[in-house]
Amino acid sequence: MILGHLVGLYTHPKKEWKTIGERHEGVSSSIGHALLLALIPPVCAYYASVNLGWQIGAGEPIFMTPQSALFIVSAMYLALLGGVAALAYLTLWMSRTFGSAPNYTQCLELAAYTATPIFMVGLATLYPVVWFVMIVGLIGVAYSVYLLYTGVPILMEIPEERGFIYASSVVTCGLVLLVAILAASVILWNVGMGPVFTH
User: Fold this and answer.
1) Whole-angstrom Cα Rg for the chain
2) pLDDT of residue 4
């Protein structure tokens, strides 16, 4: 069931990872989870950018044109889904090094459910104050990292000590992936695909 693990990942993550590991509901469940939850940041960001305005410092709120906001949030949605797929691939690619033999479905489950707190951070953009969104974002990223550390040993079926090193490697690759996405965003902005603000 799509979103069936959402509450459990927050209330009892280790138990929920065990349930995910035992059921292995398949690619459709993981993809459905990611497709649905990855909509939260773009939809909320679009509404905030067009209707509420972003508060940066003590000045007036900054609004974006609907067309510009739609382009940016569409790119955001694709980047979030691409990040989940890439993280799953990286997890699979590194698995042999740590004595694990998962299939892509298991790695996709790990990536999709680990990304849940990052997706949920999108709700914070409904209060579009930069410092607030940044704080909530850091909390979301920290909890995603925690989920990764608790989920790797269970889903990859390896001892916790080895799982810690495995998860640390995945986190490192995830950070490199994040930097690559940010760099691509800067390049796109510099070639004229940046936001357009209303006056």
Assistant:
1) 18
2) 67
Residue 69 bridge partners (DSSP) = none
Quote the CA–CA distance of 3 and 113 in Å, as a whole number. 10
One-character DSSP codes across 83-99: HHHHHHHHHHHHHGGGT
C-alpha span between 71 and 9 (Å, rounded): 32
Query: Tell me: the pLDDT tens digits for 139-165?
Result: 999 999 999 999 888 888 888 888 888
**What are the tens digits of pLDDT across the range 13-54?**
889 888 888 877 778 888 888 999 999 999 999 999 999 988
Q: Are 114 and 33 in contact (CB under 8 A)?
A: no
pTM summary value: 0.86
Strand partners, 64: 197
Instruction: Tell me which residue of 73, 74, 114 sits closest to 90, measured CA to CA.
Output: 114
